[in-house]
Every structure is written in C-alpha cells, then in structure tokens.
C-alpha cells in the first residue's frame, strides 16, 4: 500500500523555508507510530530538513537531481538515493506490494505520488500559517472518500487546533 502522510493548514500549506509550519507534538507521535518499521519516500529538501539523516527504524528513499548530493550523503544502511524519478516510482510500486510505503514530502514528491497513493493520512490544522512557500495538492472529492475524521477538533499540547483525517482513493 502507498500512503501519503501530511500536516497541512486550511490553505494546504505544509512548509516555509524548509521548516514545518506548526509545532504539534501529537502529530509527530502519530507520524512515528505510522511510519516506524515501514518505508518512507521523500525529496531532497525533506531529507535536508531532517538534518541529512534518515529516519531511524525505517527504510528511507530520497529523490534528488544531484549526483553530488548522493555521493556526499550515501553512507547510511537504511537510506537509498534516486536521481531518476521513474526509478523511485518503480521502487515504491514494487515495495508497496509487500510493505506499507509512506510518502512524506515535500510538495514535488506529494504531487508526483498523488495519482499513485491509496490512502491519505492528514493532520488538518484548523488555522492558517502566517507564511508558507510549500503546499500539499488539493484533495479532490471525486477522487477520495473520507474514511475517518476526528469528531471534534483536537488541541495540541502547544495550543494548536487540528483534526485527524484518513482518505481512501475511490475505485
């Protein structure tokens, strides 16, 4: 199965200057719960936002257009780099037969995999970021069925209101 996991605001904003927009510890706990012992696929900027280190206890795949970036960072047992998007897409499709693959960003990777994703795990922040330069693609009602939405807004330990949502691709 291929899923996308994201925290976004009401305008689909997900980042600014390669940083997350909101500090929601509960969302980070949910992200960890869902992705540990699974496969994560990301773009170079997301990898850089993680300190150029793979997420532990996950099989990490990173897409970059730079061979130099690969040479500099290709030193981890649990992290593989791709310079060809079609090779990454093929690997995700192959691995998703037996494993759960999570697409974790950024915007270019989300756009690339939206047509291939089976599920969306969305933390929908109920306020808008003051500034944003990175956005999640629109979730179109004709393509997705909402399987779950938290009944009432949740409030993070940092005071940020949000709802958890899960969508399944329509057949």
Chart the SSEs and their pairings.
Blueprint lengths: L1 E7 L4 E4 L2 E2 L4 H11 L3 E5 H6 L9 E5 L3 H7 L5 E4 L2 H11 L5 E3 L3 H7 L5 E7 L8 E2 L8 E6 L4 E2 L5 E9 L2
Parallel strand pairs: 1-7, 1-8, 4-5, 4-7, 5-6
Antiparallel strand pairs: 2-3, 2-9, 8-12, 10-12, 11-12
Walk me through what this model shows.
There is one protein chain. β5 (59-63), α3 (67-73) and β6 (79-82) form a beta-alpha-beta unit. The two termini are 14 Å apart. It is globular, with a radius of gyration of 16 Å. It is of the alpha/beta class. The strands form 2 sheets. Strands 1, 4, 5, 6, 7, 8, 10, 11 and 12 form a 9-stranded mixed β-sheet that branches. It is built from 5 helices and 12 strands. Helices cover 25% and strands 33% of the residues. The protein has helices at residues 25-35, 44-49, 67-73, 85-95, 107-113, and strands at residues 2-8, 13-16, 19-20, 39-43, 59-63, 79-82, 101-103, 119-125, 134-135, 144-149, 154-155, 161-169.
> What's the total helix number?
5
**Overall radius of gyration:** 16 Å
User: What is the string of SSEs from the N terminus onward?
Assistant: EEEHEHEHEHEHEEEEE
Amino-to-carboxy terminus distance: 14 Å
User: What's the overall average pLDDT, rounded?
Assistant: 96
Shape: globular
Low-confidence stretches: none
What's the story with the biggest beta sheet? 9 strands, mixed
* Beta strand count: 12
What percent of residues adopt helix (DSSP H or I)?
A: 10-25%
Quickly give the structural class. Answer: alpha/beta
The amount of beta strand, in percent, is 25-35%
């Amino acid at each position: 199965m291929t899923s996308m996991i994201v925290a976004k605001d009401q305008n689909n904003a997900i980042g600014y200057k390669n940083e997350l927009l909101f500090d929601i510890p509960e969302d980070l706990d949910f992200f960890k719960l869902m992705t540990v012992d699974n496969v994560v696929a990301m773009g170079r900027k997301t990898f850089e936002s993680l300190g150029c280190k793979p997420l532990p206890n996950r099989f990490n795949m990173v897409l970059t257009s730079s061979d130099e970036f690969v040479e500099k960072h290709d030193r981890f047992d649990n992290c593989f780099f791709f310079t060809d998007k079609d090779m990454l897409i093929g690997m995700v499709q192959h691995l998703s037969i037996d494993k759960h693959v999570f697409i974790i960003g950024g915007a270019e990777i989300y756009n690339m995999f939206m047509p291939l994703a089976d599920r969306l795990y969305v933390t929908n922040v109920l306020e808008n970021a003051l500034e944003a330069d990175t956005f999640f693609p629109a979730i179109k009602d004709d393509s997705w069925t909402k399987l779950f939405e938290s009944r009432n807004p949740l409030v993070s330990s940092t005071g940020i209101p949000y709802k958890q949502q899960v969508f399944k691709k329509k057949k």
